[in-house]
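dude i think i finally got it to work??
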Amino acid sequence: MHPPFSFEDSGRVFACHVARAQARDVAVWWWFTVSSDSNRYAPFQAEAGDTEDSVRARVVAYYDALVTRRSAPREPWRRPDRPANPSAAASDGNKTPPRTGQGPSQ
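look at this
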């Protein structure tokens, strides 16, 4: 079992420890908390070859990506079975195809 540890990165203090996600769970996970966040996270399973440096790198990369996703503008949600612009789709479906062989050029 890996011992718990803490470290600082970019002014944030990360506290990491290994624990099971649920009482019946056979796998153990790396859990961490961050001083600037009230949540706790378990992004990956603990492995025998984990070192403090390898876990630190994965935790920081995971949390930085999470912060980036949270700060990105939200994309509008729509049902996948409906077109993004229903009025344009309706008008496209009602177009009359051009006629050939008729008109002033002939």
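The longest strand covers residues 12-20.
im so relieved honestly
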